[in-house]
Amino acid sequence: MPAHDDHRPVLVTGGTGYIGSRLVPRLLKAGHRVRVLARSSQKILQRSWGHHPHLDVVEGDVLNLSDMKRALSGCRAAYYLVHSMNPKVKSFGSADRMAAENMVEASLLAGVQQIIYLGGLGEESADLSQHLVSRHEVATILQRGSVPVTVLRAAMVIGSGSASFEILRYLVDRLPIMITPRWIDTPCQPIAIRNVLTYLIGVLDNPQALDKTFDIGQPEVVTYRRLMEIYAEEAGLKKRIVLPVPVLTPRLSSYWIHLVTPVPAALARPLAEGLRNPVICRNDDIRTIVPQPLFDCREAIRLALERVKQQTVESSWREAGDMPPAEWSDPGDPQWAGGTLYEDSWRVLIEGNPENIWPFISRIGGSTGWYYANWLWWLRGIIDRLAGGVGLSRGRRSGEEILPGDVIDFWRVQRVDPGRSLLLVAEMKLPGEAVLEFSLKAVGEGKVELRQTARFLPRGMWGIVYWYLVHPFHVPVFKGMLRGMVESSGLPLLEGPARP
Question: What tens digit of pLDDT does each residue of 443-454 get?
Fold first, then answer.
């Protein structure tokens, strides 16, 4: 039966992740009814396709069996695109096993006809990395159930915003001379993100794909050294000097990646460990079942670079994960009444309306910067990176669009109300929790108040000490930011900056 004639929805788990947030709109465009399981519905609802009439969003967690049963109820098929490899999960292997077992049980109860799982390449061996072992374990658990499973196994996915591509991009961009581990000459068979998405959609409701495992990749087998050479050529960089050494362990490699790229050490380490394993396709059966033109590495890197340069990255590894809580940042919340909550607020009065100034608020961070003393922000990012934090180098996914869950340097967007307010939650290393809010309010006719507010919830005595140490810097920095934002907009400044 053609997919669009079956009115039962297709569930996408991991719908806010790198792959899932690209897959969902393409499924909708192909005529499928789609249900997304997400821990935060706001990350879905504010996307351009978030209110599509054939889209249903269910809040929940794959580690909660009740949530999985609720999400899968009435579904004909399900995509399993989740993994627990993130800095907040200490044992991603056990979490992955629990989530996969929940998927098997809930799918059986719901009468699901197909599970589609995107796993990893790599042959079973004693030297297989923990990350790839976990990917294979998940496939085995899913296949043990009675619901037909289609497994697609991929190596490195080349696309703007993927963690693997970001590591490659930042290493080659920033290091004319690279000291690398021996895995630099390990053979691999990458695949472009566009080809991955075509395969994922092509196997849905495809009887030839049921209970099958397929290796997906471009035809050419390359080494990571060759990928670096191709990237440098496509980016217009001088030839990079690569010096492999035997003493650079995955742990040391992950710390180096952490310092040079936006990818944190907790994520970089399992990825670095996996690079020592050859990841090549053992069969090409998928090419006859879902035929499509396959991009080679050069074409895939060129397309990814174009997206980065145009600041039109559709999704990024940075946006995956939980939305940060910030209920405490509302001083009117009775839960925090009487607690220690510090606040510093500044305002300006501008001639114009909220729509005139909003674009300059929504472009903050990334290549735009912070409108004042960017060197101070850069220094704060370096200190945070050295302390094991996320640092400033994550940038932002898009230069124009801003959505809940997006990353802006070492902040994450918690709430965005276009033309009215933007709430950022700090993800840098702090002895407490911090938010930065920008709000707009029309004041009479042809005037608008722009207010910038920092709030800090200290953790113990060190948190209180930290606030009083940084508070004096707020005066020049916040005043400079507001002035810089207004100057960039070209609107007349009527009053301020001043504290309200």
Answer: 888 899 999 999
